Amino acid sequence: MPNATSNGKKVLISVLLGTFTVSLNNSALNLAVAELMVTFNASATQVSWVVTIFMIAMAMTMPLTGYLAGRWGRKTVYLMGLCGFLAGSGLGALAQHLNGIIVARGVQGIAAGLMIPLSLSLIFSAYPREQRGRASGVWGFAVMMAPAIGPTVGGLLLEISHWRALFLMNMPFAIVGLICGYRYLSADSRPTRRQFDLAGFCLITLGIGGVLLSLNGVETLSDLLRPATLVPLLLGAIALTLFIRVERQQAEPLLDLSLFNHHRFRYSVLLASLQSIILFGCILLIPLWMQNTLGFSPLTTGLVFLATALAAAACSPIAGRCIDRAPPQWCIGLGLIATVISLIGLGTLSAATPVWIIAAWMGLRGIGLGFAYLPATTVGMKDLPEQQVAQASAMNNMARRLVSSLGVVALSVYYDMSVRASLDLGTSYSEASASALHVAFFVLAGIALACLPLAWALGRSGVSPDMAMPSSSNSQPQTSLQGRAK
């Protein structure tokens, strides 16, 4: 596709409506945990499934998107996902019991698993390669902005209305997204008929489900060593190992692992996974620091996170234009340097630090996110053949979720062990917590620093001959593309 289609902006808006709805719903619904505990007389563990089931269902559905998109077309599968999300929202709003809400969230998770990997694929199909960074930057703005305003919207709705409103608010966005998607998204001309890889699907589902289920709620070493945690974790790891072996032998694999032979894609997945540890590590550590150590309220903590989200959303479109016009390593490197500085700043905080300085460091952290996080993913995928973008996006998302889950568990276990050791030596809790958090922030800064060589390699890797093909190669069978990639 030498030039952007005339309805490129309409395609972008159509996809934004769907992804914005998913992101807004997730961030807003997190505020309802306390109210759901009171309403249904449930424990925190029971209500936590409202959040957990969504993440697990989404991660277990993502591997299917490449096959389903090839079988029925990206437009059809994306709109199916949006319909499913609309249905899940309706079920949630009508639920009379906590189990009904959990089922509704599972339906939403399955729907999101179909939509998210196809988002960039649909956007890329409407823009030439030299404009995909700019388009993905606008998409990144919406992805970052939704979590920023979600807690505010959720808190306002809970204040003036009912928790059911958090499900109902999705429906107007989803309906408009369906109308725009049906009208403006282009149908794939030649869906491919591939044999379904049942063995691969069973293994990847058991693997991702087992790992994510076992790691949910792990905060201490004793939690990690419990049979209820350790057994599914080991079974999940074995299933993922077997999945890799099986996929390498399949003529038509569920996920084409030969995509990792593309240097840019491989480096981008590594970068995105390491940055996910930093992203979710900060989500874990900042509330511990502000609420447990400094005694700030949840509202103040939320406003500090708002600084990160707003800065990231503002920088994402700028970064998108930068990676279209200049070598991407400079943009991503700038973001990583900002990340390193912000994490070092967070690691030097003390009880006397005013909240505005914490917000300033978090704002700089948002600049780092905007220039490095999503751009790394975009650079890794924007030169892939369009048929493979959905699979590449799914693999990128799954890798980020698995690696970030492991990273957050490692940080949680370290924090617990460090605080316990300090308390045994007679240190006060606030001092013990501060000491553990300082080290954790410096470790995250070290991870960001280690990403700099990867960013340089990502930018210097260039486009391989197999990838430098016109988008019109859509008409070629997918098996020939896979064969050349191998």
From TrEMBL:
<dbReference type="InterPro" id="IPR011701">
    <property type="entry name" value="MFS"/>
</dbReference>
<feature type="transmembrane region" description="Helical">
    <location>
        <begin position="227"/>
        <end position="246"/>
    </location>
</feature>
<protein>
    <submittedName>
        <fullName>MFS transporter</fullName>
    </submittedName>
</protein>
<feature type="transmembrane region" description="Helical">
    <location>
        <begin position="139"/>
        <end position="158"/>
    </location>
</feature>
<feature type="transmembrane region" description="Helical">
    <location>
        <begin position="107"/>
        <end position="127"/>
    </location>
</feature>
<feature type="transmembrane region" description="Helical">
    <location>
        <begin position="196"/>
        <end position="215"/>
    </location>
</feature>
<feature type="transmembrane region" description="Helical">
    <location>
        <begin position="398"/>
        <end position="415"/>
    </location>
</feature>
<keyword id="KW-1003">Cell membrane</keyword>
<feature type="compositionally biased region" description="Polar residues">
    <location>
        <begin position="470"/>
        <end position="486"/>
    </location>
</feature>
<dbReference type="Pfam" id="PF07690">
    <property type="entry name" value="MFS_1"/>
</dbReference>
<keyword id="KW-1133">Transmembrane helix</keyword>
<keyword id="KW-0813">Transport</keyword>
<keyword id="KW-0472">Membrane</keyword>
<feature type="transmembrane region" description="Helical">
    <location>
        <begin position="330"/>
        <end position="349"/>
    </location>
</feature>
<feature type="transmembrane region" description="Helical">
    <location>
        <begin position="267"/>
        <end position="290"/>
    </location>
</feature>
<feature type="region of interest" description="Disordered">
    <location>
        <begin position="467"/>
        <end position="486"/>
    </location>
</feature>
<keyword id="KW-0812">Transmembrane</keyword>
<feature type="transmembrane region" description="Helical">
    <location>
        <begin position="50"/>
        <end position="70"/>
    </location>
</feature>
<feature type="domain" description="Major facilitator superfamily (MFS) profile">
    <location>
        <begin position="11"/>
        <end position="463"/>
    </location>
</feature>
<comment type="similarity">
    <text>Belongs to the major facilitator superfamily. EmrB family.</text>
</comment>
<feature type="transmembrane region" description="Helical">
    <location>
        <begin position="355"/>
        <end position="377"/>
    </location>
</feature>
<feature type="transmembrane region" description="Helical">
    <location>
        <begin position="296"/>
        <end position="318"/>
    </location>
</feature>
<feature type="transmembrane region" description="Helical">
    <location>
        <begin position="77"/>
        <end position="95"/>
    </location>
</feature>
<dbReference type="InterPro" id="IPR036259">
    <property type="entry name" value="MFS_trans_sf"/>
</dbReference>
<feature type="transmembrane region" description="Helical">
    <location>
        <begin position="164"/>
        <end position="184"/>
    </location>
</feature>
<feature type="transmembrane region" description="Helical">
    <location>
        <begin position="435"/>
        <end position="459"/>
    </location>
</feature>
<dbReference type="InterPro" id="IPR020846">
    <property type="entry name" value="MFS_dom"/>
</dbReference>
<dbReference type="InterPro" id="IPR004638">
    <property type="entry name" value="EmrB-like"/>
</dbReference>
